[in-house]
Amino acid sequence: MSPDQVVQSLARLNTFCDASETELRTIAEAGSIVTVPQGWSLIWEKTGADKAYVVLAGDLDVRRGKEVVGHLTAGDVVGEVAIVRRRLRTATVVAATPLEVLHFTREAVERLYAEVPAFRASLDRAVIEHA
Fold first, then answer.
1. Are 30 and 112 in contact (CB under 8 A)?
2. Cβ–Cβ < 8 Å for 88, 114
3. pLDDT tens digits for range 66-120
4. In what order do the strands lie in the sheet with 59-64?
5. Could you say which of 23, 35, 72, 130 would form a disulfide bridge with 118 (CB–CB 3.0 to 4.6 Å)?
6. CATH number of residue 93's parent domain
7. SS (H, E, C) the chain
8. Using an 8 Å Cβ cutoff, are 45 and 51 in contact?
C-alpha cells in the first residue's frame, strides 16, 4: 500500500474524521502496514505496552483468558490503553479474519499523541471506549 493509499484508508475511517490531510499523512508516515493472517495474536495479555495498531481491514477478537470479551473492526485502535495509561496489557487480541493494520511503536504513539491533535483526540476516545 502506498503512502497515499494509507492516507486515503485513514480518511475513510470514523476514527480520524476530524483529521486534516497533513495530520493523516503524519499518522500514516509514523506507522507501518502489516498484513496479519487469521488466528494470529497482535497483543498478549499481561505484557508490556510496546505497540499499537489502527485496524484498516478485518476483524479482531479481544480475549481475557479464553473468554472473548470484545470485537474490533476497521477503524478501531488497539493497544493504545496500555501505552496511554502506562500499564501492562489487560487482554489478548487475536485476528478473527485476515487483517491489514497500521502498526505503531510505543515511541511513535507517544510522539503522535503529543504532536497531532486529531491523533490525541482519537486515542482519548478509544481509551474511554476500551477501558
1. yes
2. no
3. 899 999 999 999 988 888 888 989 999 999 999 999 999 999 999 999 999 999 9
4. 41-43, 92-95, 59-64, 67-73
5. 23
6. 2.60.120.10
7. CCHHHHHHHHHHCHHHCCCCHHHHHHHHHHCEEEEECCCCEEECCCCCCCEEEEEEECEEEEEECCEEEEEEECCCEECHHHHHHCCCCCCEEEECCCEEEEEEEHHHHHHHHHHCHHHHHHHHHHHHHHC
8. no
- Domain boundaries, position 14: 3-130
Measured between alpha carbons, how far is 102 from 30 in angstroms, rounded to an integer? 9
Number of compact structural domains in the chain: 1
Residue 127 has pLDDT above 70, yes or no: yes
